[in-house]
Amino acid sequence: MSFKKWREDLVKTLISKGYLSSSKIIRSFRIVPREKFLPVNLKEKAYIDMPLSIGFKQTISAPHMVAIMAEVSDFKNGNKILEIGTGSGYNAAITAEIICQTNDKNLGHVYTLEIIPELFSFAKKNIEKTNYNKKVTVIQQDGSIGYAEEAPYDRIIVTAAAPKAPTVLIEQLKPGGMLLIPVGDHYFFQSLIKIKKNYDGSTVTENLGSVAFVPLTGKNGWKSSSY
Ligand code: SAM
Protein backbone atom coordinates (compact mmCIF):
# COMPACT_ATOMS: atom_id res chain seq x y z
CA MET A 1 0.00 0.00 0.00
CA SER A 2 1.14 3.54 -0.72
CA PHE A 3 0.72 6.70 1.36
CA LYS A 4 -1.54 8.04 -1.43
CA LYS A 5 -3.88 5.05 -1.13
CA TRP A 6 -3.89 5.25 2.71
CA ARG A 7 -4.62 8.99 2.44
CA GLU A 8 -7.57 8.36 0.12
CA ASP A 9 -8.94 5.66 2.46
CA LEU A 10 -8.74 8.07 5.41
CA VAL A 11 -10.50 10.81 3.43
CA LYS A 12 -13.31 8.37 2.57
CA THR A 13 -13.64 7.38 6.24
CA LEU A 14 -13.74 11.02 7.38
CA ILE A 15 -16.45 11.75 4.78
CA SER A 16 -18.51 8.69 5.75
CA LYS A 17 -18.33 9.62 9.45
CA GLY A 18 -19.48 13.19 8.65
CA TYR A 19 -16.25 14.95 9.67
CA LEU A 20 -15.54 16.15 6.12
CA SER A 21 -18.19 17.62 3.86
CA SER A 22 -16.97 20.75 2.00
CA SER A 23 -15.37 20.04 -1.35
CA LYS A 24 -12.50 22.52 -0.84
CA ILE A 25 -11.60 20.93 2.53
CA ILE A 26 -11.84 17.40 1.11
CA ARG A 27 -9.54 18.51 -1.73
CA SER A 28 -7.05 19.84 0.82
CA PHE A 29 -7.04 16.54 2.79
CA ARG A 30 -6.44 14.69 -0.49
CA ILE A 31 -3.41 16.86 -1.32
CA VAL A 32 -1.49 17.50 1.93
CA PRO A 33 0.86 14.57 2.78
CA ARG A 34 0.46 14.05 6.56
CA GLU A 35 3.40 11.58 6.51
CA LYS A 36 5.75 14.49 5.70
CA PHE A 37 4.77 16.25 8.95
CA LEU A 38 5.72 13.33 11.21
CA PRO A 39 8.95 12.08 12.79
CA VAL A 40 10.46 9.32 10.59
CA ASN A 41 9.50 6.47 12.97
CA LEU A 42 5.78 7.42 12.84
CA LYS A 43 5.28 7.88 9.09
CA GLU A 44 3.62 4.45 8.72
CA LYS A 45 0.91 5.64 11.16
CA ALA A 46 0.17 8.85 9.23
CA TYR A 47 -3.26 7.75 8.05
CA ILE A 48 -4.55 6.23 11.27
CA ASP A 49 -7.11 8.68 12.67
CA MET A 50 -5.34 9.47 15.92
CA PRO A 51 -3.11 12.16 17.46
CA LEU A 52 0.59 11.23 17.35
CA SER A 53 3.55 12.38 19.42
CA ILE A 54 5.87 14.95 17.84
CA GLY A 55 8.07 15.14 20.94
CA PHE A 56 8.30 17.71 23.77
CA LYS A 57 4.97 16.33 25.19
CA GLN A 58 3.16 17.70 22.11
CA THR A 59 1.04 16.07 19.41
CA ILE A 60 -0.07 16.43 15.83
CA SER A 61 -3.89 16.49 16.18
CA ALA A 62 -6.00 13.58 14.93
CA PRO A 63 -7.18 14.10 11.32
CA HIS A 64 -10.86 14.14 12.39
CA MET A 65 -10.12 17.04 14.78
CA VAL A 66 -8.31 18.94 12.00
CA ALA A 67 -11.36 18.29 9.80
CA ILE A 68 -13.86 19.47 12.47
CA MET A 69 -11.92 22.71 13.01
CA ALA A 70 -11.56 23.38 9.27
CA GLU A 71 -15.28 22.76 8.62
CA VAL A 72 -16.45 25.12 11.39
CA SER A 73 -13.92 27.81 10.44
CA ASP A 74 -15.81 28.67 7.25
CA PHE A 75 -12.55 29.68 5.52
CA LYS A 76 -12.78 31.82 2.38
CA ASN A 77 -10.30 32.04 -0.45
CA GLY A 78 -7.93 34.95 0.24
CA ASN A 79 -8.38 34.93 4.05
CA LYS A 80 -5.56 36.02 6.34
CA ILE A 81 -5.28 33.41 9.11
CA LEU A 82 -3.44 33.30 12.42
CA GLU A 83 -2.84 29.80 13.80
CA ILE A 84 -1.57 29.47 17.38
CA GLY A 85 0.23 26.17 18.00
CA THR A 86 2.11 25.18 14.82
CA GLY A 87 3.21 21.79 16.17
CA SER A 88 4.13 19.82 13.04
CA GLY A 89 2.83 22.41 10.55
CA TYR A 90 0.20 19.99 9.15
CA ASN A 91 -2.88 22.04 10.12
CA ALA A 92 -1.23 25.19 8.73
CA ALA A 93 -0.64 23.41 5.40
CA ILE A 94 -4.22 22.09 5.29
CA THR A 95 -5.49 25.63 5.98
CA ALA A 96 -3.19 27.17 3.34
CA GLU A 97 -4.43 24.69 0.75
CA ILE A 98 -8.02 25.84 1.48
CA ILE A 99 -7.48 29.61 1.50
CA CYS A 100 -4.67 30.21 -1.04
CA GLN A 101 -5.50 29.58 -4.64
CA THR A 102 -2.35 31.48 -5.77
CA ASN A 103 1.17 32.12 -4.42
CA ASP A 104 0.42 35.85 -3.97
CA LYS A 105 1.00 36.54 -0.24
CA ASN A 106 -1.76 39.17 -0.34
CA LEU A 107 -4.30 36.62 -1.58
CA GLY A 108 -4.51 34.27 1.36
CA HIS A 109 -1.81 33.59 3.95
CA VAL A 110 -1.35 31.62 7.15
CA TYR A 111 0.78 33.03 9.97
CA THR A 112 1.46 30.31 12.52
CA LEU A 113 3.08 30.69 15.94
CA GLU A 114 4.96 28.02 17.90
CA ILE A 115 6.39 28.57 21.38
CA ILE A 116 8.79 25.56 21.55
CA PRO A 117 11.99 26.35 19.59
CA GLU A 118 12.60 22.72 18.49
CA LEU A 119 9.04 22.35 17.19
CA PHE A 120 9.30 25.71 15.41
CA SER A 121 12.38 24.34 13.54
CA PHE A 122 10.65 20.97 12.88
CA ALA A 123 7.52 22.67 11.47
CA LYS A 124 9.51 25.19 9.40
CA LYS A 125 11.42 22.31 7.74
CA ASN A 126 8.17 20.41 7.11
CA ILE A 127 6.53 23.49 5.57
CA GLU A 128 9.59 24.09 3.36
CA LYS A 129 9.96 20.50 2.13
CA THR A 130 6.26 20.37 1.19
CA ASN A 131 6.53 23.76 -0.61
CA TYR A 132 4.00 25.63 1.55
CA ASN A 133 6.54 28.30 2.54
CA LYS A 134 5.07 30.94 0.18
CA LYS A 135 1.64 30.47 1.78
CA VAL A 136 2.63 29.81 5.39
CA THR A 137 4.92 31.87 7.63
CA VAL A 138 6.14 30.00 10.73
CA ILE A 139 7.12 32.24 13.65
CA GLN A 140 8.66 31.31 16.98
CA GLN A 141 6.69 33.27 19.57
CA ASP A 142 4.26 33.01 22.46
CA GLY A 143 0.97 32.88 20.57
CA SER A 144 -1.18 33.53 23.63
CA ILE A 145 -0.62 37.25 22.94
CA GLY A 146 -1.38 36.82 19.24
CA TYR A 147 0.71 38.44 16.51
CA ALA A 148 -0.05 42.16 16.30
CA GLU A 149 2.45 42.66 13.46
CA GLU A 150 0.08 41.18 10.83
CA ALA A 151 -3.29 41.86 12.53
CA PRO A 152 -6.18 42.04 11.84
CA TYR A 153 -7.07 38.46 10.80
CA ASP A 154 -10.14 36.88 9.24
CA ARG A 155 -9.74 33.84 11.47
CA ILE A 156 -7.63 32.97 14.52
CA ILE A 157 -7.37 29.24 15.13
CA VAL A 158 -5.87 28.02 18.41
CA THR A 159 -4.79 24.37 18.55
CA ALA A 160 -4.00 24.20 22.28
CA ALA A 161 -6.40 24.62 25.22
CA ALA A 162 -6.51 27.95 27.09
CA PRO A 163 -7.93 28.79 30.55
CA LYS A 164 -10.17 31.33 28.74
CA ALA A 165 -10.23 33.10 25.37
CA PRO A 166 -7.59 35.88 25.54
CA THR A 167 -9.14 39.32 24.88
CA VAL A 168 -6.07 40.32 22.87
CA LEU A 169 -6.94 37.66 20.26
CA ILE A 170 -10.45 39.08 19.83
CA GLU A 171 -8.87 42.53 19.39
CA GLN A 172 -6.71 41.13 16.56
CA LEU A 173 -9.75 39.89 14.59
CA LYS A 174 -11.23 41.82 11.68
CA PRO A 175 -14.87 42.86 12.08
CA GLY A 176 -16.75 39.80 10.82
CA GLY A 177 -13.82 37.60 11.87
CA MET A 178 -13.85 34.46 14.01
CA LEU A 179 -11.76 32.99 16.84
CA LEU A 180 -11.83 29.23 17.33
CA ILE A 181 -10.28 28.10 20.62
CA PRO A 182 -10.42 25.10 22.96
CA VAL A 183 -11.13 26.44 26.45
CA GLY A 184 -11.19 24.69 29.80
CA ASP A 185 -9.28 22.48 32.17
CA HIS A 186 -5.97 21.40 30.66
CA TYR A 187 -6.23 17.80 29.34
CA PHE A 188 -9.91 17.24 30.35
CA PHE A 189 -13.27 19.02 30.27
CA GLN A 190 -12.40 21.38 27.43
CA SER A 191 -14.92 22.88 25.03
CA LEU A 192 -14.30 24.11 21.51
CA ILE A 193 -15.46 27.74 21.54
CA LYS A 194 -16.29 29.83 18.47
CA ILE A 195 -16.31 33.60 18.98
CA LYS A 196 -17.63 35.70 16.11
CA LYS A 197 -16.76 39.42 16.07
CA ASN A 198 -19.56 41.58 14.72
CA TYR A 199 -19.07 44.72 12.64
CA ASP A 200 -19.93 46.89 15.70
CA GLY A 201 -17.18 45.13 17.72
CA SER A 202 -19.61 43.05 19.82
CA THR A 203 -19.08 39.27 19.97
CA VAL A 204 -21.24 36.14 19.81
CA THR A 205 -19.93 33.00 21.53
CA GLU A 206 -20.94 29.44 20.67
CA ASN A 207 -19.91 26.21 22.42
CA LEU A 208 -19.25 23.50 19.80
CA GLY A 209 -18.76 20.64 22.26
CA SER A 210 -16.07 18.66 24.08
CA VAL A 211 -12.48 18.33 22.85
CA ALA A 212 -9.09 17.27 24.25
CA PHE A 213 -6.02 19.38 23.46
CA VAL A 214 -2.60 19.90 25.03
CA PRO A 215 -2.38 23.07 27.16
CA LEU A 216 -1.74 26.54 25.75
CA THR A 217 1.23 27.96 27.66
CA GLY A 218 2.65 31.51 27.63
CA LYS A 219 1.34 34.78 29.07
CA ASN A 220 -2.37 34.05 28.61
CA GLY A 221 -2.10 30.27 28.87
CA TRP A 222 -1.59 27.77 31.67
CA LYS A 223 1.48 28.25 33.82
CA SER A 224 3.85 25.29 33.47
CA SER A 225 3.71 24.73 37.25
CA SER A 226 -0.04 23.99 36.95
CA TYR A 227 0.24 20.87 34.75
N1 SAM B 1 -1.59 22.35 14.86
C1 SAM B 1 -0.60 21.36 15.19
C2 SAM B 1 -0.31 20.43 14.04
O1 SAM B 1 -0.93 20.54 12.99
O2 SAM B 1 0.60 19.59 14.22
C3 SAM B 1 -0.89 20.61 16.45
C4 SAM B 1 -0.79 21.49 17.63
S1 SAM B 1 -0.39 20.72 19.16
C5 SAM B 1 -1.91 19.95 19.55
C6 SAM B 1 -0.32 22.21 20.15
C7 SAM B 1 0.90 23.07 19.90
O3 SAM B 1 0.70 24.31 20.56
C8 SAM B 1 2.19 22.49 20.45
O4 SAM B 1 3.15 22.42 19.44
C9 SAM B 1 2.61 23.50 21.53
O5 SAM B 1 3.99 23.63 21.67
C10 SAM B 1 1.96 24.76 21.00
N2 SAM B 1 1.76 25.82 21.99
C11 SAM B 1 1.33 25.71 23.28
N3 SAM B 1 1.26 26.94 23.83
C12 SAM B 1 1.64 27.83 22.88
C13 SAM B 1 1.78 29.24 22.87
N4 SAM B 1 1.54 30.02 23.93
N5 SAM B 1 2.19 29.83 21.71
C14 SAM B 1 2.46 29.08 20.61
N6 SAM B 1 2.37 27.74 20.59
C15 SAM B 1 1.96 27.13 21.70
Number of helices: 6
Low-confidence stretches: none
Structural class: alpha/beta
Distance between the termini: 41 Å
Largest sheet: 7 strands, mixed
User: Judging from the principal axes of the Cα atoms, what is the shape?
Assistant: globular
Our count of domains comes out at 1
Task: Specify the CATH architecture.
Answer: 3-Layer(aba) Sandwich
| Element-by-element helix/strand order | HHEEHEHEHEEHEEE
CATH fold topology? Rossmann fold
Say how many strands there are: 9
- In percent, how much strand structure appears in the residues? 25-35%
Summarize the structure.
The chain is α/β, with parallel strands linked by helices. It is built from six helices and nine strands; from the N terminus they run ααββαβαβαββαβββ.
Description:
The chain is α/β, with parallel strands linked by helices and 227 residues long. The chain has one domain: 3-Layer(aba) Sandwich (Rossmann fold). It has helices spanning 3-16, 23-31, 63-73, 90-99, 117-129, 167-171, and strands at 52-55, 58-60, 80-84, 109-114, 136-140, 153-158, 173-184, 190-197, 203-211. A seven-stranded mixed beta sheet has the order 5-4-3-6-7-8-9. Strands 1-2 form a two-stranded antiparallel ribbon. Strand 7 (173-184) and strand 8 (190-197) form a beta hairpin. Helix 2 (23-31) crosses helix 4 (90-99). The model has no long low-confidence stretch (mean pLDDT 95). Bound molecules: S-adenosylmethionine. The site of S-adenosylmethionine has 26 residues, from strand 2, helix 4 and strand 4. Residues 58-61, 84-85, 87-88, 90-91, 113-116, 119, 142-144, 159-160, 213-214, 216-218, 221 line the site of S-adenosylmethionine (SAM).
